[in-house]
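Researcher: Structure for this, please.
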Amino acid sequence: MNSNETLARQGYLMLPSVFSADETQRIGQRLMDDLTAHSGPAVLKSRERIYGSRNLLAASPWLCDLAHSPVLDELLRATLGENVGLVRGLFFDKPPDRSWSLPWHRDRTIAVKDNTLPTTSFKNPTLKAGIAHFEAPDQLLANMLTLRIHLDAMTAENGPLAVIPGSHLLDTAQEKHPIVLSAAAGDVLAMRPLLSHSSSMSQAGTAAHRRIVHLEFAADMALPDGIQWHDFLPLQP
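Model: Predicted structure, token format:
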């Protein structure tokens, strides 16, 4: 089974060693420098430490360039086509002294410019860190792909991600048993937004962080009902 078939059937694909140790370290340092300099509600802090961002592209638009890594560029174009664009960037850290968990869920919301417009396609408008969001229709979400760049190793120790293979197809007959994933720093997880996933707490006493750069890509700039993406950064040829 090739990469495209694996992604189509399982809803996720782990891409090993996309970025070297030096590249991963530089990405992490540049990102933290950007977030430190960027003020606003989209930068999430606890105890004066940055642990996340809901609007990463405002601080670090250069993250779009990471998609030009040959393996990522090839996967994005093969999966979403030549009109693919980056539509949202998130960052989170699971620091050892401030761990958290997430129940099983699917990523159904997208960031938009205005969620007060009338629409029959979108529902449940919300504001997250000052950014307008809508819950998107399944057909739109099925034409999106998320890339999660691991800046740290993801192990049983630091609250790893678990997924239900096949759950992105929204057909319980095609779902497999849940799998707990692991990754090395520099690995990239490609996953469909409709893939059911969860995250556990870090183990007590761990010193390991789990930093993730979460980048969401869409197949096209156009959205139904005149709704506009909050950001759409096309992948240049």
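Researcher: Any notable elements?
Model: The radius of gyration is 17 Å. Residues 21-37 form the longest helix (17 residues).
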